[in-house]
Design goal:
Helix content is 38%, strand content 19%. A 6-stranded parallel sheet has the order 1-4-3-2-5-6, with helices on both faces. A 3-stranded antiparallel sheet has the order 7-8-9, covered by helices on one side. The protein is an alpha/beta fold and 286 residues long. The longest helix is centred in the middle third of the chain and has 16 residues. The protein has 2 domains: 172 residues, Rossmann fold (3-Layer(aba) Sandwich); 97 residues, Pantoate--beta-alanine Ligase, Chain: A,domain 2 (2-Layer Sandwich), CATH 3.30.1300. The structure holds adenosine monophosphate (AMP).
């Protein structure tokens, strides 16, 4: 059975024992309400460590006032059964009071890659993410941690942070898992009305259609962006574009003019009502 811990001390104690026995530790941090995207990361992590730890923690510091912190979907019983089904050994599910000292005043800020894209409309988000992931790394001390490419900017932020702060963990990126119609799986998809759910396939539609443009020889960033925005406008009239950008895969800086031969990442965020969906795709040769 999967073991569940909600205190830092309890988790540390069991992991210390396991490490003394020579076990390696792999780790998948999540906010719960698990779907196949999360489970694919857990399967990857299962292969990479003797003890597989998953965390389920809806981290308040990565939500801004007015975002969906209180409404964020939760179902711990179901999550634990899913964790069990993919071979998770330990679930860490702390209360916010366990994670944050009432007078906590230390944060982790990753400059540059945290800016632009989601960082523009969610200016405090990545500081919350970087801080909680640093804390989770210090608590779990994993050898390997797996994150999804679905949150492309988040993965870039974590990689940069681990590099810059010499955190001794290997970061692995897992491919985006999609619904049958292409919509990237997300815990937030449950918020979508029927109409919005149908139109939400325009995100991946725009990415695939733009990718086909690149394969057909189009190299102009401006033309590709116009194509993607036009696609969303036509196929998702109820959607409101937050951003559609073409960026350097590592630095996440905007590509201007010819996209060059290394390829680029198209990243986008679209609101349907209050629900904000994101997706991304690498375009052109890697
Ligand atoms: P979350 O619970 O949304 O914080 O996500 C936890 C982890 O799962 C993050 O590393 C996400 O990038 C990853 N993830 C979320 N959705 C997907 C998906 N559709 N495919 C692959 N990974 C995902």
């Amino acid at each position: 059975m999967v073991e569940v811990y909600n205190t830092i001390a309890g988790l540390r104690q069991v992991l210390k024992q396991r490490r003394q026995q020579g076990a390696s530790v792999s780790f998948v941090p999540t906010m719960g309400f698990l779907h196949d995207g999360h489970l694919s990361l857990m399967r990857l992590a299962r292969e990479r460590g003797d003890v597989l730890v998953a965390s389920i923690f809806v981290n308040p510091t990565q939500f801004a006032p007015g975002e969906d912190l209180e409404a964020y979907p939760r179902d711990l019983e179901r999550d634990l059964a899913l964790c069990q089904s993919v071979g998770v050994d330990i679930v860490f599910t702390p209360e916010p009071s366990q994670m944050y000292h009432p007078k906590a005043s230390t944060t982790v800020t990753v400059a540059k890659v945290s800016q632009g894209l989601c960082g523009t409309s969610r200016p405090t988000h990545f500081q919350g993410v970087a801080t909680v992931v640093t804390k989770l790394f210090n608590i779990v001390q994993p050898d390997v941690a797996v994150f999804g490419q679905k949150d492309y900017q988040q993965l870039a932020v974590i990689r940069r942070m681990v590099r810059d702060l010499d955190i001794p963990v290997e970061i692995v990126g897992g491919a985006i898992v999609r619904e049958a119609d292409g919509l990237a799986m997300s815990s937030r998809n449950v918020y979508l009305s029927e109409t919005h759910r149908a139109q939400a396939t325009a995100l991946v539609g725009a990415l695939r259609s733009t990718s086909a443009q690149v394969d057909g020889g189009q190299r102009s960033a401006e033309a590709l962006l116009e194509h993607a925005r036009g696609f969303i406008g036509r196929h998702a009239p109820a959607g409101r574009i937050d951003y559609v950008e073409l960026v350097d895969p590592l630095e996440l800086t905007p590509v201007v003019g010819d996209m060059g031969h290394g390829g680029a990442v198209m990243a986008l965020a679209v609101f349907f009502g209050q629900t904000r969906l994101i997706d991304n795709m690498h375009l052109g040769a890697p």
